[in-house]
Structure formats: structure tokens, C-alpha cells
């Protein structure tokens, strides 16, 4: 959040109401931003200051920019002037309320310290005395943060439209020189590749009892029986 510093030097007061009659009053002043008592700061006690105490004490406040913009005059610097008393407790002498926006509007053009005087009002509301201080606004400042600003969504590195596949697809025939990984153990399924791809072996000869594979398809050739001359002079068939 944008903030500006406001430095105030409480100089003095005069013509205050006397609330201590046997001796001179010991007087101090406090300053705070309206609505936030945690901002209260205090001057030293001016011993025997009486009705015209002097302090010349500086203090600094951080003012949100929202209190300095627009037409709002609801934020004030509240000064309280009190008499320091040991036995009966401190007694209020009067107050001064100054709008922060009013101070900004009346600041010097070169932003140098400016001396101002405001009337003091008693607890009854009547004016009694004057209050003098110097003020100066600091430059615009961005309040520091403890960490970096995160984006609404985490930033990722550029990637392709579709994510890469989780497993490599093995082609039907591995390329020349492909060395597949060795699969341990047996089990069911297809055997693992043992090396480079080799063409299927040539057909083996059939086992005994089966005729050899011919040169082509169709019926086997007809075998003519062997003829010979028998002892009777005629032709006959040779039977084995």
C-alpha cells in the first residue's frame, strides 16, 4: 500500500488553562492518528512550564495515501496537552484536532517544513490557548512486503500442445541396429527380442513317413509299372 511520511515537531504552547494552582504545571503533549491509539507518541515533560510550555520535540507518522486523496477530512492528528501529576493522576488541559488533508493542502510548494498555530480547546469545548508545531510530508513511498507477489496461476515452461507419451511404441519391425532391452525371467506372453531382426527360417524337410515336398501344387506324377519277358515268352508285369 502506498504511504507517505509525516514529520511533526511540537514546538510550544501558550495561554493554557491553569489546572494546578499551588505551583507551576509540568506539561507534556501527545499526538496520534484518529482511530488508532497505537500511533500515539509523547513529548518529554516540560518541568515548571506552566501555561506556556516548550518542547521542540519531533515525531514521525506513516500516512496511507487513501487518507490524502479525495475530499475526505475524517482522518485527524489529535494533540492532547496534559499536566503531569504524581498523586492524583495526569489531568487534561486541552486538545487540538487537525485534519491531515488540511495539512497536505497547506503544505509548502517545495515541501519544506512549515510552521503553523492552532487554537487549544478545553475539555468543555471552549478555546483557551494556542498550540504551535512544524510539519513536513515526505516523498511517496511504497510499503515494503515480506515476500514476492505470486501470479494467479503458476508459471510453466513452454510445452507442446499434447504431452509426450509415457511409453515408447515399438514398431512392427525394429530398425536396423536396434538393441532392445533384455527382459529378465520367463512367464507368459511374447518372448523378448534377443538381438537384431532376422528373416524367418526356410522350411524344414518333413519327418520320415511323409513324402518330400514337391516343386509345386497338384497331383503326383503317374508311375508306369515295369514290364519284362516271362518264361512263357509273353509279356508280363513285374511284381515286387
TrEMBL record:
Highest taxon above the source species: Eukaryota
Any Pfam family: C2
Feature: compositional bias, Pro residues: 199-214
SUPFAM superfamilies, per the entry: C2 domain (Calcium/lipid-binding domain, CaLB) (SSF49562)
Residue ranges, annotated region (Disordered): 199-240
One GO BP annotation of this record: defense response
InterPro entries registered for this protein in UniProt: C2_dom, C2_domain_sf, C2_SRC2/BAP
SMART domains: C2
Gene3D superfamilies in alphabetical order: C2 domain
Annotated ranges, domain C2: 1-113
Protein name (database record): C2 domain-containing protein
Taxonomy of the source species: Eukaryota, Viridiplantae, Streptophyta, Embryophyta, Tracheophyta
Amino acid at each position: 500500500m502506498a504511504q507517505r511520511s509525516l514529520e511533526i515537531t511540537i514546538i510550544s504552547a501558550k495561554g493554557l488553562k491553569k489546572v494546578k494552582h499551588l505551583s507551576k504545571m509540568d506539561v507534556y503533549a501527545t499526538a496520534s492518528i484518529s482511530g488508532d491509539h497505537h500511533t500515539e507518541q509523547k513529548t518529554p515533560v516540560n518541568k515548571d512550564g506552566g501555561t506556556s510550555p516548550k518542547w521542540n520535540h519531533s515525531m514521525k507518522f506513516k500516512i496511507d495515501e487513501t487518507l490524502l486523496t479525495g475530499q475526505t477530512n475524517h482522518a485527524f492528528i489529535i494533540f492532547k496537552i496534559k499536566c503531569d501529576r504524581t498523586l492524583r493522576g495526569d489531568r487534561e488541559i486541552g486538545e487540538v484536532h487537525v485534519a491531515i488533508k488540511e495539512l497536505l493542502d497547506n503544505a509548502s510548494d517545495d515541501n519544506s517544513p512549515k510552521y503553523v498555530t492552532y487554537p487549544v480547546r478545553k475539555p468543555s469545548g471552549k478555546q483557551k490557548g494556542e498550540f504551535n508545531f512544524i510539519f513536513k510530508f515526505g516523498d511517496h513511498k511504497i510499503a515494503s512486503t515480506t515476500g514476492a507477489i505470486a501470479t494467479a496461476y503458476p508459471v510453466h515452461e513452454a510445452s507442446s500442445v499434447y504431452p509426450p507419451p509415457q511409453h515408447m511404441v515399438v514398431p512392427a519391425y525394429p530398425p536396423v541396429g536396434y538393441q532392445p532391452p533384455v527382459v529378465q525371467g520367463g512367464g507368459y506372453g511374447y518372448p523378448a527380442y534377443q538381438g537384431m531382426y532376422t528373416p524367418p527360417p526356410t522350411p524344414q524337410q518333413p519327418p520320415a513317413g511323409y513324402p518330400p515336398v514337391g516343386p509345386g501344387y497338384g497331383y503326383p506324377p503317374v508311375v508306369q509299372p515295369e514290364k519284362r519277358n516271362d518264361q512263357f515268352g509273353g509279356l508280363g508285369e513285374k511284381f515286387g
